[in-house]
Design goal:
By secondary structure, the protein is of the alpha+beta class. The protein has one domain: Roll (Ubiquitin Conjugating Enzyme). About 15% of the residues lie in helices and about 15% in strands. The protein has a 4-stranded antiparallel β-sheet. The longest helix has 18 residues. The protein is globular, with a radius of gyration of 16 Å. The two termini are about 30 Å apart.
Length: about 140
């Protein structure tokens, strides 16, 4: 028996603007040349943390991507994709981006949590956040 899934809704990044601006007023946005939206703003995971400037790009049909612009990350920081340095915020086998998800409820808070775990890693050398199962030679992905 075949399982039928409802059709994926049309993805319109501009619809994320109101919710992100409400939850993260320090974020600014502009349209990208690929009919998406790019966000820039600051996150501070703890009161003692520096202000991290992040960039989030949401260009369908690709999943949103997040970079830390400043301060620069340690070159050996774990849980980043090696091809472009984006943060690995979830394991795609367990969760995938869908237009019904809110950037303000998922990607941005997860980036703040990633920064929190990163700061612990800088001090201890251990990543205490959740991790996906890795196989030798596989693409590293984090939950």
């Amino acid at each position: 028996m075949r399982t039928h899934y409802p059709p994926r809704p049309r993805e319109r990044p501009i619809l994320q603007v109101v919710k992100v601006r409400r939850a993260f007023p320090q974020f600014r946005w502009h349209r990208t040349h690929r009919n998406g939206v790019q966000w820039s703003g600051t996150l501070q995971p703890t009161p003692d943390s520096p202000l991290y400037v992040i960039r989030l790009v949401h260009e369908p049909p690709r999943s949103p991507k997040v970079w830390v612009v400043s301060p620069g990350l340690h070159p050996d920081a774990p849980h980043r994709y090696p091809a472009d340095g984006t943060l690995c915020l979830y394991w795609p086998r367990e969760w995938s981006w869908d237009p019904r998800h809110s950037l303000a409820d998922t990607i941005i808070p997860w980036a703040a949590l990633w920064l929190y775990y990163y700061e612990i890693w800088l001090v201890t050398g251990d990543w205490v956040g959740p991790c996906s199962p890795h196989r030798p030679g596989s693409i590293k992905e984090a939950a």
